[in-house]
């Protein structure tokens, strides 16, 4: 049964279906709606919602709940995620699963509350200290806000690692049909957790390893997980790429704009296609290379000054020319604007 | 010894051998004369006495006691500097049957973690905090603590702590005792046997309170740090008794269960109810029941005119007609009577950009929106304007412009609030993008109050009738702009 649902609400609904019964957060525009809706829904299904005194506390509450074996989440925006970075590093270092939502706003500093994709580096490349990765998912529709949240809890448990849903105010505020298929979601037993029981008494959650060789072994163990994730977890979506000469690449809300751009370009005789990474980490490099094999050029569009474009260039490794178009400050380009940009660069692109 | 019970065995709440240590697995890493060993012993013995070992989760901090998990045979969680009360909060709430101990030093609790301890205490979390105050940072090599005494020489207060530069020593018990919610707060010291026995009773009492669900306890333990103080262990212990105790008076600062007002009852829902999914809802057999058409719209006006709601009603109608739909609002800091607009896409195909910069239809609920957005309407598009006539000098040659005085009609019906529904009806009548029955059925679900529902029905009828009777087909500002 389809229901009209807001993106931010769909995230909370996905979390409830996934068995998340713990939410610790701190208000920040444009992510507050997620906390507000969690405050309503999570206690109704028997869970804990707590508004912490800061994002610093919130992420350490997430650490605590995850240590106890709960499916737990928090949601914030850039400034709040910056405060959480230490805690995220501890969570990854202690191999704890959790789901975090970053409804990206304009930055740096206080910036504004309009949509940007400028947290790409801080979420995708880490941001906290040490050798760790976040798995990062980038939904582009309300249905995906729901589906990818369910997936995020699954991935977090499977890899015992933070999973970030990186979205923006547009996808968060947008209403679209949401189709919820009710199902029972099995959670893993988590026999590593500290639950205050005789069975889990010997368990220890920590990220401190004093001996250099012991820490290196731990870092290598984490790295092995990340290698596995790169092998198994890349996800992407394509639109009209089979015969494309120009391949547009964008994620999240931008990919929606680019879909319209592809239609406009094709209507004007240019064979364009869209490649949309769904996982920003692991980045779908293999898939991109395969798709880009027969294109003449690639154009990356982002709501930042050029972040994912670096991963695109790394993946393509000079095989195809890569152009970039970015908007910031909360400006989301219209499809027509991107179309004009493509035509303006025709000489470079085709 | 007279008056004291001598315990000859190590508490079973300790590991027999400290296998998590790399070497010297039969002794702790604490320096000779350090207070941590005594505090560990008091906690372990209390856990054994109260039968709590299996249920206990010990949260160890950053500081000398970071390795408390080497020793305690309980569930162990090691956390970031200062955040133990936050982690302990969530551990306890996740596992209410567990006994959660937050073990912290003075830098951890009284400097970097001040927010966490104050708020955990203020929430009355049912946890025990054991706060070891030795007036200096031990693990990092003797820097100043928030509890360092005036004149105390440390590596970061080489001339002694100065009140003018670093303020006065922070009194945590006194600070937290200003809150209503904590149950038990006491400061004890490890300077002599008598005080150690008092400390033992305090630790046990705190754990008993948690066992009974009694709320937040904090025991501050004044403790010697001979190594950093460069003192003989006995001298360091005497320094605690003679100097530290004078700056931090011992005693009970709180010992009563707080009287908290009862909270509201939270409704219990199944997952399906929470997700608003009717598990038994039949799948709709015929996908499209009525004639519908693709359309992109921008709806604009003042906040409070029901602009966003009008878009949502339209989106809900399209959803029920099995169309694809997107609704995107303008959003900003909460502000009254600012301008508001939303974008709506109705489509039989998957929708690309939800951001509509060149709409086929503009609904302008005020003059400002008309001027601002009219030029963006596509050639052959439609503008519905909430007024009897167009402003002097206005023109939008590319579009058909229709004036519908929705607010005036709504006022006549008795409520300005239904102007948006009047306009919605006019839109449906003018464009036939969706059936009017669909609007009625959506309104029936959204509007629960029967009187208001009746008003909305009248608004629907009035909007439709106005277009039927007052608007001429093809009455365009520029005839070739009409494509409907």
Explain what this protein looks like in three dimensions.
Chain A has 350 residues and is of the alpha/beta class. Helices cover 42% and strands 22% of the residues of chain A. In chain A, α1 (7-17) runs parallel beside α2, α9 (253-267) packs across α12 and α10 (285-292) packs across α11 (308-316). Chain A starts with a strand and ends with a helix. Residues 475-484 of chain B have low confidence and may be disordered. The longest helix of chain B has 21 residues, at 450-470. Chain B has a seven-stranded mixed sheet with strand order 2-1-3-4-6-5-7, sandwiched between helices. In chain B, strands 9-10-8-11-12-13 form a six-stranded mixed sheet, with helices on both faces. Chain B is an alpha/beta fold and 484 residues long. Chains A and B meet through β1, α1, α2, α3 and α4 of A and β1, β2, α2, α4 and α10 of B.
CATH architectural grouping of the largest domain in chain A: 3-Layer(aba) Sandwich
Q: Averaging pLDDT over every residue of chain A, what do you get? A: 97
Total count of domains of chain B: 2
Seen as an oligomer or otherwise, the chain set is heterodimer
CATH architecture of the largest domain in chain B: 3-Layer(aba) Sandwich
For the record, give the distance between the C-alpha atoms at the N and C termini of chain A, rounded to a whole number: 45 Å
Provide the spatial order of strands within the biggest beta sheet of chain B: 2-1-3-4-6-5-7
Please identify the top-level CATH class of the largest domain in chain A: Alpha Beta
Structural class of chain A: alpha/beta
Examine the coordinates and then state which fold CATH places here, giving the name of the CATH topology of the largest domain in chain A.
Answer: Rossmann fold
Counting helices, strands and paired strands, the structural category of chain B is: alpha/beta
- Contiguous runs where pLDDT drops below 50 for at least 5 residues of chain A: none
The largest pleated sheet of chain A is described as: 8 strands, mixed
**Mean of residue pLDDT of chain B?**
93
- From the spread of the alpha carbons, the general shape of chain A counts as globular
